[in-house]
Amino acid sequence: MAAAGAIMATAAMTAEAQQVQGFVHQQSDASGYEWPTDTAVINKLDQWRDLKFGVLFHWGLYSVPGIVESWSICSEDVDWISRKGNMPYEEYKKWYWSLADSLNPTQFDPAQWADIMADAGMRYAIFTTKHHDGFCMFDSRLTDFSIAKGPFAGNEKSDVTRHVFDAFRDKGFSIGAYFSKPDWHTEWFWNPEFATPNRHINYKKERHPDWWKRYQDFTAGQLGELLSGRYGRLDILWLDGGWIKGDDIGLDSILLEARSGRHPGLISVDRSIRGRNENYQTPERGIPEKQLSYPWESCITLSNDWGWVPDAPYKSPEKVIALLAETTAKGGCLLLGVGPTAEGLIEPEAEWRLRAVGEWLRRNGEAIYSTVTTPIYNDGNVWFTASKDGSTLYAIVTPAEGEAMPRQITWNGNEPKGRMTLLDGRRKLSYSTDRNGVTRVNLPKGVKAGPLAIKFRKR
Ligand code: GLC
Q1: Using a 6 Å cutoff on CB, does residue 305 contact ligand 1?
Q2: Which of 127, 132, 141, 333 is nearest to 237 (CA)?
Q3: Considering 367, 397, 424, which residue would you say is the last residue of a domain?
Q4: Number of domains in the chain
Q5: What's the gap in Å between 317 CA and the centre of ligand 1?
Q6: Which of 154, 200, 281, 365 could be stapled to 296 by a disulfide with Cβ–Cβ 3.0 to 4.6 Å?
Q7: Residue 12 pLDDT
Q8: Rounded to the nearest whole angstrom, what is the distance from the C-alpha of residue 394 to the centroid of ligand 1?
């Protein structure tokens, strides 16, 4: 029942999300989850589930004009793919490819990124090493279509991915590589002999097995580069573009080699492809309706877009905290999408919001990090989490934005016993529980409006 409910919720959520922007990957259904058997992977997954909060960077050619990531070169007639003016499609693609000549992020400062994200309370970082457009943000030896070959070539940080990963490792983050299996730039995926009508390969594998083989070798080769050690130890391989399966590119053997070599326990996220190589699931732009017992992560944008766009309608810090509370209470992690500017910085409008989230987490993080779920996990805008041993419960209250703080917080179930405190400031709280199991907590005067967390023991 719970699982069916969750799937329906995901379907509803993705329809709405699709109107906002972008193609949204369906979450695989619960029956498709397969627990890993490699103990190193199980251990890493366990550690990852404690982190709760991460960042997903989208940075690439699309950051120059500030448009939807990659998708505008895909000739599918849908609302969320808008194209420049009335440019004919072929001309448009040429213009888009030529952005490789203008992406020159002279202010690229991965230390600034890492400083902001660490301050925001994030604990893992995933970076777009290559998006669907095929433009590599790492120094691939297998193509010239990369940040390391254009105007940025001479820069000491031209192998961008390495510098991003190093900066985040320095701050103690777990590291994930986003990599798109589809690649619309290589001729072995979209071959110039034919038109490119949609996201798929534009030829028949049966007729051109050699092209397909070259695509497979190219893709496996690039993954090999990312896993070669040049980019340090990876914790997560986050594979996007589920219309190509891991099996299509020999993911099993890539993982086997990586895990037995430099990347023990590497978590594989073959998104929306059920089974052994989807070590956690990735509902997108929304949170499942109910708790899920297997590992999952909601990826949600800080604005409406994954990449940088001008005048982005950013979510408030309170909204992000509410998303984090809900995700945690349902047993998942929150992966927040942030788009650096074409110059290579996190813009101030994103930065202050992220730092404000971190300010809250410094005072209330005990209710989030390394917590586990508890059966009664929600009542209205109150979300419950539990300490690992289950002895302590946390109630995270997420009032609607702009709402004045009530004098009393009320919830049903999870009856407290003994001492109760406000996490922020460790102040003792008075409360009562009535015969129907309804608890009323009195908030002291002067509590700031906004999310707060309460700590107590369960009766
Ligand atoms: C979707 C989109 C892709 C984006 C990803 C991020 O799969 O296709 O553009 O990178 O979501 O979650």
Answers
A1: no
A2: 127
A3: 367
A4: 2
A5: 23
A6: 281
A7: 38
A8: 33
